[in-house]
Specification:
The protein has 4 helices and 7 strands; from the N terminus they run βαβββαβαβαβ. By secondary structure, it is of the alpha+beta class. It is globular.
Length: 152
């Protein structure tokens, strides 16, 4: 069974940091050194989560909430678990968490290699922050996804 757990306890923080390092920083996805104490992880409205499957932490994501807008950041699934449906599970669980928190629109800076995944998960191309897009130096694509809205 998959569950999305808010990172609060030391073992969860260790799991989060290990996954981020392995998937996002040691691979060069992010071209700078990882900071376990980055203030954004504990900033008001920002919530880091672990995807846990069978008791094992296998994925990470952070949801930065600004009113009804949620920005999805630092998404990663351990390499050994990729392409097995865990990314989709993480996405669905995060969508539900976002809706429960009052979010109606999610935003993401998707890496080019992940755009197809996001498109299949209901995301659409849309520039939502030109400054962030420019900082990605052509490595990212901005996307949005409306969640929690009743269909007419």
């Amino acid at each position: 069974m998959n569950q999305l757990v808010k990172v609060e306890q030391p073992p969860h923080w260790r799991g989060l940091h290990n996954i981020r390092r392995e998937v996002l920083f040691d691979t060069g996805v992010f071209p700078f050194e990882y900071d376990e104490n980055h203030p954004d992880d504990r900033a008001r409205g920002n919530t880091p989560f672990l995807l846990i499957s069978g008791g094992t932490p296998i994925g990470v994501v952070r949801l930065d909430q600004h009113g009804t807008i949620g920005v999805v950041r630092l998404v990663g699934i351990l390499t050994a678990y990729q392409r097995q449906g865990y990314g989709r599970a993480l996405s669905e669980l995060l969508d539900a968490q976002a809706v429960a928190s009052g979010v109606t629109q999610l935003r993401v800076n998707a890496f080019i290699d992940a755009v197809g995944f996001y498109e299949k998960s209901g995301w659409e191309h849309a520039v939502w922050d030109q400054d962030e897009l420019e900082k990605a130096n052509g490595r990212g694509v901005q996307m949005i996804k409306n969640v929690g809205l009743k269909k007419r």
